[in-house]
UniProtKB/TrEMBL annotation:
Catalytic activity, reaction form: 1,2-dihydroxy-5-(methylsulfanyl)pent-1-en-3-one + O2 = 4-methylsulfanyl-2-oxobutanoate + formate + 2 H(+); 1,2-dihydroxy-5-(methylsulfanyl)pent-1-en-3-one + O2 = 3-(methylsulfanyl)propanoate + CO + formate + 2 H(+)
GO cellular component entries: cytoplasm; nucleus; plasma membrane
EC number: 1.13.11.54, 1.13.11.53
Main subcellular localisation: membrane
Pfam families documented for this protein: ARD
Cofactor entry: Fe(2+); Ni(2+)
Protein name as catalogued: Acireductone dioxygenase
Gene: LOC106124718
One GO-annotated biological process of the protein: L-methionine salvage from methylthioadenosine
Pathway per the UniProt entry: Amino-acid biosynthesis; L-methionine biosynthesis via salvage pathway; L-methionine from S-methyl-5-thio-alpha-D-ribose 1-phosphate: step 5/6
Membrane topology: Peripheral membrane protein
One function term, GO molecular function aspect: iron ion binding
Function statement: Catalyzes 2 different reactions between oxygen and the acireductone 1,2-dihydroxy-3-keto-5-methylthiopentene (DHK-MTPene) depending upon the metal bound in the active site. Fe-containing acireductone dioxygenase (Fe-ARD) produces formate and 2-keto-4-methylthiobutyrate (KMTB), the alpha-ketoacid precursor of methionine in the methionine recycle pathway. Ni-containing acireductone dioxygenase (Ni-ARD) produces methylthiopropionate, carbon monoxide and formate, and does not lie on the methionine recycle pathway.
């Protein structure tokens, strides 16, 4: 099960947990209410045949998928990529990641502009809403293999903060103000 918590303000190694003192964990339900992030737990041994992922993909219209391995051995220009992934940014489409090996952190801003850190491990699938400021880093294991899903052809373009004038950001902020209802 995915774990999430409010981050401290330290500027030390981004791959560390960065808990506040004392730690402030946040439930999956509250994570959704405060950020719109949706979470699914999938079985990494059976996801290709059990129909659970296929149902999610069909319901959401995901028609393209690929796989990324974030590690020094597998990702060209690793240090440069890790720095780019960790820059605060948004996308015009939702970002879908399903971890199958390793672990890493997705950080997202809440409605008070505070960072919430989300640890993903094998079986965790998260959907980060379009227009939300977020970032990614591996943890100290320096390894994550994940599937990425898209509606249509993938859009890889990140828009670094500030990008508040973008329509997707305005729509997301409006949803934040109104509150996210219970995920389907």
């Amino acid at each position: 099960m995915v774990k999430a918590w409010y981050m401290d303000d330290e500027n030390t190694d981004q791959r560390l947990e960065h808990h506040r003192n004392p730690p402030e964990f946040i439930s999956i339900e509250d994570l959704y209410k405060k950020t719109g992030i949706e979470y699914f737990k999938l079985n990494v041994d059976t996801f290709k045949t059990d129909g659970v992922l296929d149902k999610i993909k069909k319901e959401r219209g995901y028609s393209y998928e690929d796989q990324i391995t974030v590690s020094e051995e597998c990702l060209p220009n690793y240090e440069e990529k890790i720095k780019a992934f960790y820059k605060e940014h948004l996308h015009t489409d939702e970002e879908i990641r399903f971890a199958v090996e390793g672990s890493g952190y997705f950080d997202i801003r809440d409605d008070s502009d505070q960072w919430i850190r989300i640890l993903v491990t094998p079986g965790d699938m998260i959907i980060i809403p379009s227009g939300s400021y977020h970032r990614f880093t591996v943890d100290t294991n320096n390894y994550l293999k994940a599937y990425r899903y898209f509606v249509g052809e993938p859009v890889w373009l990140p828009y670094n903060r500030p990008a508040d004038d973008m329509d997707c950001r305005k729509e997301y902020v409006d949803k934040l103000k109104k509150g996210f209802s219970v995920a389907a």
